[in-house]
Amino acid sequence: MSVNKYKIVIPTNDKQIDIPIELKWDFGGRDGGIEDYEKTVLSEVLGIPNDFEVDRFSHNDYQILNILKTSLNYEFYFYNGLPQNIPSANITNYVSSYLTAGFTEKELYYYSKPFTKSFFKLDFYDTTDPVNQTLYFTIILPVQQGLTESVTISTSLPNVDVKKPTMRLDFIGDKEGFFIYWLRKQNFINISQFYMSAKFFNGSTGIYATMVNQPQFQIPNPYTFNGDNYFYYKVNLNYNDKTYQAYRTDNNIQRVGLENNPIVWFEYVNP
Amino acid sequence: MFASCRGVFGHMFQNNWINGVLYMPSFNKQTVFNIYGQPRYKYCDDIIFYNDVNNSFFYRSSPWNGSEFIGGPKPVASTLLPVNIGPQQSDDSANTRQILFPTTILDMGKRDEFIGEICSSSEFEGKYLGNTFMSSSYNDSSDILQLGIISRLVNANWLGQLFNSGAGSINQFFSRSGDRIDGDIAQSFSINSEYQINPFIAGNYADNQIYVGEDTTGPVFGVFYNASGVTNNSQYKNRRALSPGINIYNFTPLLQNQYGYPKTQEVPFYKWLISASNSIFGNELNNWYTSANGNQTGNGFYKQKYQSLDVIGDDYFKTPLMSTGFPNIYYGFITNYDTLGNPVISSPVVPNPVLVGSPNHFYFGLKNGKTALNRFIKLYIDTELE
Amino acid sequence: MGIDDGTRIILGSLRNKVSPNVDMMSNVVLEQTQRENIEFDRTADVNLQQLYIDEREASQVFRPTCKFSFIFKNNYIGSTNYAPFKNNLFYTNAIQNAVSATVNPNLPWEGYPQYFEFDFIRTDNNNPGYTQPPNNHLTFVNKSATTYNWTHYMSYAYDNNPNKQLEAVDNKTTASWSWVASDGIPFIISVGSNDSARVISFRCVMPHGLNVNDYVYLSFDYVGERLFLVSSLGDAGFGSEEYIFNITNIGYTGATFNQGVTGTFKKVINDANSGETMSTYYVRRHKILTSSENAVLVKAGFEQNIFNSKSKLETAVLTPNNLTRTSVKEGGQAYTLTFNTDIDITDLIDNQKRPLSELYFTTIWKGYFGWTNPLKEGFTFNLPLVNNQPSPWWNVNNASSDTNLPIGIYFSQTTPPVGPFVYTENLQIGDIIDGDFCEFNSYNQVERVVSNILHKFTFNSLRFNLTGNTTSNNPNQLGYFYRPHKPIVIRSFSDYIEEGDAQLIVGIPNYSFYSNLSNSFRWRDLYDFGFIDDLGNGVDYPFINGKHYPFTENIFRLIPEGSQIGDQFINEIAEPTTDECE
Questions:
Q1: Which residue range forms the structural domain that includes residue A168?
Q2: How far apart are CA C337 and CA C286, in angstroms?
Q3: Closest partner CB to A42 (pick from C26, C30, C46)
Q4: Complex ipTM, two decimals?
Q5: Which of A12, A17, A21, A168 to mutate to test the interface with C (most CBs of C within 10 A)?
Q6: Residue A192's closest CA among A240, A230, A148?
Q7: C377 phi and psi, to 5 degrees?
Q8: Considering only Cβ atoms within 10 Å of each terminal Cβ, which end of chain B, N or C, has fewer?
Q9: Domains in chain A: how many in total?
Q10: Residue A45 is assigned to a structural domain of this protein
Q11: Burial code of C159-182, b = ≥16 C-beta within 10 A, e = fewer?
């Protein structure tokens, strides 16, 4: 500091000198802070990558007579009577056979186009409410899978085996539709319970046949009923061990899809 | 004898099944229209049948009454003709009942030898026979004829008849009706032309395998035929593979697998009646048994699925000496060996009459080298020498 | 603020005798300039490509995938009398066995084990008497179809084991070595000083990794000297440069360098700095990162390898149980392996304390059906046969070749139960297993795999006795080999070496090597993801979902012993190719 030379004479009163001390300063790292803040804002604006990786969920194992099994069992039944006779129908009117669905023996045996173009469509929703539900994914079960039944295609030939709509899906053998491919993590969509509905697309008629989870004649009002209980099965995913289990919508204890308790679907017939 | 060198002995195939190419003879058809313009056909309905449902002609097969092959009546001359003009009822040169012309399919096995290695399926487990078929299973029979003539010449009775018969001396070879050669020689011709058999040529048979003898009716001639059996591609194994479809892996102990021909068809057969004699070969009067009854299975001709014929289970020639192992194995043709491999001339024949030939005769065409089988060999069989 | 040195503020009493001391006060004015930030004044350009690069660099999570082409030659015929095995062979002498069985049904049948016993995914889940009742060996669980024969894991090189005991036998001279990994690479002198040649040739049973003008530090000395200059590589044989190195024979006397002398050597780059430039040798050890349940193994579509599958029909009459079936000798399906868990390498370092640059697909033979003995481990130099027999290293009684893998046993479900049958238990996350025999040079910062590790399994002769076994319990049978570890490069180190002074350069990685001689740190940079240099170093895997998706193909060979020459060269002078044009 350079100061002028002043002679200070002792006054009769106190004198006061103002010495200006100039400071120039700034917050340290403010630029860096702004850059960090900029990054934070950018990440909020742009977002972070979401993980859409899917994993393979398999049917959870179970035991029957102390034998460990993993098979997922479906049985589809078609109605062989007249639509107006549903209320008076009985269980024998529901047959697990494509013949009841309108195919001939030869069409089944020779895998004709109408037959091979048919399929079962399993839709997985988040809720049973048809107004608000969201369809998350669909599984197609081809008709080329499944067990067989013996039919006659000619009186001068021995009986032959044709496919029937009873499927035993597993890790080996028929496995189309056995695995559910769903998001690996619950970050993006937090859901672990789905409601599964079923339809059959008939390749010869071009019509979807809706399926219900019990014979229609057993439903109190077979044509006007609350679909929540009858059109769905519940499927619970376990993200820890990548498995799923199926239940009836009204029962969270008894699993379905097992060899001794398959997932049964019955054709719904409009009046 | 001079006549035999001049071709007086001709060969024709009759009364038996032969495998080859299906031949459909042509026929004449006359179309006549009625007043409504609807056609009506005139044709020989002995061999042709018209099906008006699908408007097609079919060749007649064999008379069938719903459960049996009953055969058709033998053709006889009209009673309007003078006596002894045309075929007579008493004339036994024609078959008593006529099976006529049934046809069926023969499964000749895998087309390629390696198909079983590509498709590991039981459908292809049968033995590969494609390289064993020839255009014809016929083997040269001149040696047999020669020996047959010799067998006659060495027989005193026969010679006497020969000299006594004068101009008709050659007829002594044709003891059967209809100018057909003696039955013992005929059966030898037939066996020699079967599929996968040791043919009668020099060196194949020893002297003790040739029989020249006689019985009360005259000379008898026969050959103790055989077929190779022990090696992997033996003739006997090939015959068993052709019918009834058995793969033989080992003879002692017997290891075999019957894959069979499940789609083979049931067809009728004529049998061959061996005359009672002191030898297995019968005598000159061996002949076809063409009645529709008396075949030990009830009325109608003997019937069996064509490729299920089994030399062990069906009415083929058998003697008590035969077994399922060599050297006295059930061959199916007229022969007889004991357990040491020695031919044995006399032995009761059970049953009699017997099946002969089927399904072991093959004939694929008239033109040598241009038959259907030659075409198959050219396309599918590797004939190049390695 | 600066104070002029010429200004002194002193007390009044010190200035003048009678001046009073008075307090002085000065007002310090603090001036501050400021202004408000204006909204939206700051702009930032967002570059999508840069954003992608940044996210990619920041991510340390990997989802590796591997395609396996399984190459297998079913080579060994044996015989068995254990009914479930006997009824499921690929028969080689069926007619004779069937004939013998008519006399004595208890005689063994001969054949190959079917391909199902070796396949990655077993599909014989419905085989009565074997995988299904009645009287079956075990009941097949479909869920375990991918883990009955093999188990798959991810692993990484965790640390080094320099004290691993190793043995080798030279199949040409039958000379043998027994050394620990840190001793280096063994050799035998093939052309010695007593041969009066211009060079002394050292032949190794594994690639030596030397270059001309490198030095070798021998396990013995010549008049106190142990460092020798490599003057040339190889001899006249094709491919011998990798296995033979030569030093100039300057007239060495004595027996030190005589033909037949054995020893070990270590590579030295600079003889003036032998301490820092000498390579170290060790056996790598791997740590498992996933469990067997995490592996998802599926068929790779309809892909087959180039070798056709071989199968045949077994006719009922030629089988012990009189059932017609199709038996499969070899197959050709390809498989794809993924994991349902992510591999996060954030906190992981490799065996050289560097960031991870490689992960490994580790495949272990499980052999749950009990056809085989516990696994043995060795290296490629243990492969060649010795006098047409497996190397003594593989003897069951040689504890050095035992793996440390856990073993399980069980008894069959037949009546009565038969056993015990042994298999390899599943590994758990964190388990340590051995890896390759490696060399690392700190000065060059390069790790080289000297010899791959191999696993070997042999058949349990009590259940399946190989044809040719002269004794019922042969302790050193022929068997199958495979390489358990398949590396996948997830990052690349640079081809060049960085060198720098800590006081002058920032950002020196913590894995760098400090050279006392040059007083500087030496390291190789890690290339960014997506960068590939002129030499092809670098990785550019898909980056999606915020994760890396590395992919590799693995030709997984199950090698029958004796059929593989191995990495040994053929010490033959190659004949020139001649054709009709010459």
A1: 54-267
A2: 19
A3: C46
A4: 0.83
A5: A21
A6: A240
A7: -125, 150
A8: C
A9: 1
A10: no
A11: bbbeebebbbbbbeeebbbebbbb
Residues C156 and C250 in one domain: no
Q: Is B304 exposed, middle or buried (0-12, 13-18, 19+ CB in 10 A)?
A: buried
**Could you tell me how many residues make up chain C?**
582
Tell me the shortest Cα–Cα distance from C314 to chain B, in angstroms: 9
Query: Which chain A residues are Cβ-neighbours of C142 within 8 angstroms?
Result: 69-71, 170-173
Whether C229 contacts C212, CB under 8 Å: no
CB C98 to CB B116 under 8 A? Answer: no
Does any domain span residue C575?
no
Instruction: Choose one of C261, C278, C295: the last residue of a domain.
Output: C278
The reply to whether C296 and C253 lie within a common domain is no
Residue C571 scores a pLDDT above 50: no
pLDDT in tens, C166-195: 999 987 778 899 999 999 999 999 988 888
Contacts of C95 in chain B (CB under 8 A): 249-250, 255
Q: Which region among A142-146, B96-100, B247-251, C29-33 has the lowest average model confidence (pLDDT)? A: C29-33
Q: What does the pLDDT look like over B127-181, one tens digit per residue? A: 899 889 988 899 988 889 888 888 888 876 666 666 655 444 566 677 787 778 8
Is there a single domain that holds both residue C431 and residue C310? yes
pTM (2 d.p.): 0.84
Residue C480 backbone dihedrals phi, psi, to 5 degrees: -115, 145
CATH code: domain of residue C200 = 2.40.30
- For residues B321 and B327, is the Cβ–Cβ distance under 8 A? no
For A238, phi and psi rounded to 5 degrees? -115, 110
Is A100 a member of any domain? Answer: yes
Q: Is C141 on the interface with B (CB under 8 A)?
A: no
C199 lies in some domain? yes
Nearest CB to A70 within list C31, C143, C546: C143
Q: Which of C3-17, C90-104, C219-233 has the lowest mean pLDDT?
A: C3-17
How close, in Å, is residue A204 to chain C by CA atoms? 30
Q: How confident is the model at residue C1 (pLDDT cuts 50, 70, 90)?
A: very low
Residue-number span of the structural domain to which C190 is assigned: 185-278
Spatial separation of the C-alpha atoms in residues C182 and C164, rounded to whole Å = 8
- Look at residues C258, C278, C298 and tell me which one is the last residue of a structural domain: C278
Separation between Cα atoms, residue C231 and residue C223, nearest integer Å: 20
Answer yes or no: do C358 and C418 share one domain. Answer: yes
CA distances from A233 to A74, A79, A192, B41 (A): 12, 20, 14, 70
Rounded percentage of chain B residues whose pLDDT exceeds 70: 90
C225 inside domain: yes
Least confident of B47-61, B220-234, C254-268, C328-342: B220-234
- The rounded distance, in Å, linking the Cα atoms of A105 and B315 is 41
> Residue A75: inside a domain, yes or no?
yes
Number of domain units in chain C: 2
Burial (CB count <10 Å: 0-12, 13-18, 19+), residue A113: exposed
Asked, for residue A38, whether it belongs to a domain, the answer is no
**Interface test mutation site (partner A, options C31, C143, C293, max chain A beta carbons within 10 A):** C143
Q: Are residues C336 and C387 in the same domain?
A: yes
Q: C542 CB near a chain A CB, below 8 Å?
A: no
Pick from B120, B249, B250: CB nearest C313 = B120
Kindly list the residues from chain C whose CB atom is less than 8 angstroms away from the CB atom of residue A19: 26-28
Q: Are C315 and C374 within one domain?
A: yes
pLDDT at C567: 45
In this complex, is the C-beta atom of C353 within 8 Å of any C-beta atom belonging to chain A?
no
- Closest to C260 measured CA to CA, from C174, C165, C386: C174
Query: Is B183 or A196 the better-scoring residue by pLDDT?
Result: A196
**Distance between CA atoms of B18 and B195, rounded to whole angstroms?**
11
Kindly state whether residues C451 and C328 are assigned to the same domain: yes
Letter for the amino acid at C422? Answer: V
**Same-domain check for residues C374 and C481:** yes
